[in-house]
Write a structure and sequence with these properties.
alpha+beta, 14 helices, 14 strands
Length: 481
């Protein structure tokens, strides 16, 4: 274990020489601390004195441990590109448009309504990334798992894939009850991201780049804070932290380092940094740390600029969905998704899709043969975020439109074909996504307007609602590294 841990810092050093952005400030400062402690005969952490960057490194680690989870949480909650729920063709859906992103770990959604069908329903959807789920079960942090996955081609490809399973709760022997049975499985989906400039590893690197550019300001401000956080008037050696909780952690660290061999220094420090009592710091310490952050004039502005840059990132995705009908013919759908932030944090999404029958349906007696292509459609959506991520949470107002051309007559849920239902369907929608701050839960509410549905040609106005849960947000908050 010691050799593996030691190699980790060596690998980080080599990686940093190739690309400084590839190494987080947490790892960089930790390895810097390991290096100086290993060079001392007594292997102790010094809070002051010549050739002692220990205090600076420890305060940076404290700030990073406190602030980076907050920033990652804000970044996750600010994203409007994730598709967590079902696709528009489902009997339960809240959006006309399929978004380009997907949860890095796992998302869950339950939605009620109907957009392109005549009968409303409730659909439960699980959407996630297989590699992200593996890392979550392995207790890996959100950022560290992405950095690890970028080391080889295979894991980079797996990171670009995601899956979804949707269940229609109206099916099966207990309608309205979610059983996750084969009978309720209404669709299976897979997607591949060709371009994704909004994944967590990218905005973590942008954040790391911002922090590194402010290094000199951090150095001056942190060094000036020494007397406020450390009892420098004491003549004892080593000096002590003014915060009792932080001092208890420091004393334990010193004791463990004194008993460790030189090869064990890194493993001891890694373990102790993970135990930094950031949630138990005294109000005075928190005030000082906040002051360090806020005294850097561009700090909060820098956070916002990184979030704005993320929002402008481009996504290009291809999604395949196999829709399993209860009685009607099964269909397959291929959707091309392109997404871009035109300015600020507004977002525009374009969809172009084609749906075809898995097997050619049998036409009615005397009717024309039925082709394989069921329909094609084009759709677009504008998302307009408002509110503060740091305060009540970010709300999202959206408006969308969709044109669908039915190439063949529709089938009822009983599996019978309805003549003279070919033609055009035009839909419009307005919606609002309401967040619960810090929990990854959002409530989408939308109203859709249609000139017709699949089975009737009258005008329709429908309300759709649901909720989504994104596990990425909780990992950003509680397991960022």
């Amino acid at each position: 274990n010691n050799q593996t841990t030691q190699k980790s810092c060596a690998e980080l050093s080599a990686l940093s020489s190739q690309n400084a952005k590839a190494v987080s400030q947490v790892d960089y400062k930790l390895c810097d601390l390991v290096r100086v402690v290993q060079q001392r005969p007594n292997r102790q952490v010094k809070l002051a004195g010549p050739n002692a960057p220990d205090y600076f490194d420890l305060v940076v680690l404290l700030i990073a441990k406190r602030s980076t989870p907050t920033f990652l949480l804000e970044a996750e909650e600010a994203r409007v590109d994730k598709q967590v729920g079902s696709t528009p063709a489902s009997s339960g859906s809240t959006s006309l448009v399929v978004k380009g992103g997907a949860p890095a770990i796992l998302g869950f959604a339950t939605e009620n309504g109907a957009l392109t069908q005549s009968i409303s329903g409730t659909t439960v959807t699980f959407r996630g990334n297989p590699l992200g789920i593996f890392h979550a079960l392995n207790n890996d942090g959100l950022v560290s798992s992405f950095i690890e996955d970028e080391k080889d081609v295979m894991t980079r490809l797996l990171r670009k894939t995601s899956f979804a399973f949707s269940f229609d709760t109206e099916r099966g022997p207990q309608p309205g009850v979610f059983t996750a049975s084969k009978q309720q499985l209404s669709s299976v989906s897979g997607r591949f991201e060709f371009i994704n400039n909004r994944r967590p590893s990218m905005y973590a690197k942008e954040w790391n780049d911002f922090l590194s550019k402010q290094a000199q300001q951090f150095t001056n401000t942190i060094n000036n804070s020494l007397s406020a956080l450390v009892a420098t008037e004491n003549t004892t050696s080593p000096l002590a932290w003014r915060d009792p909780v932080l001092q208890a952690w420091y004393a334990e660290t010193q004791s463990l380092l004194a008993a460790a061999s030189n090869d064990q220094v890194e493993s001891v420090l890694r373990s102790q940094v993970d135990k930094l009592p950031v949630a138990e710091l005294s109000p005075q310490t928190i005030t000082q740390l906040n002051g360090i952050e806020n005294s850097i004039g561009v700090y909060l502005q820098g956070r916002d600029s990184v979030l704005d840059k993320i929002a402008k990132g481009t996504l290009v995705t291809l999604d395949y969905t196999n829709k399993r009908e209860a009685n009607a013919p099964d269909t397959s759908n291929i959707t091309f998704i392109a997404e871009k932030g035109p300015g600020g944090r507004t977002d525009f999404t374009f969809n172009g899709s084609l749906t075809f029958f898995n097997k050619k349906p049998t036409p009615l007696a005397g009717a024309q043969p039925i082709g394989r292509i069921r329909d094609f459609n084009f759709s677009g959506q504008f998302d307009i975020p408002f509110g503060s991520v740091r305060e009540a949470g970010q709300f999202v107002l959206w408006g969308s439109g969709k044109y669908q051309r039915l190439m063949e007559d529709s089938f009822t849920q009983a599996g019978t074909m309805v003549p003279n239902t070919k033609g055009d369907i035009a839909l419009a929608q307005i919606g609002l996504r309401i967040p619960i701050k810090g929990l990854g839960i959002k409530f989408p509410i939308s109203v859709s307007f249609a000139n017709r549905t699949e089975l009737i040609k009258e005008k329709e106005v429908r309300a759709n609602f649901g909720f989504t849960f994104d596990l990425d947000t909780l990992f950003a908050k509680f397991k960022p590294f």
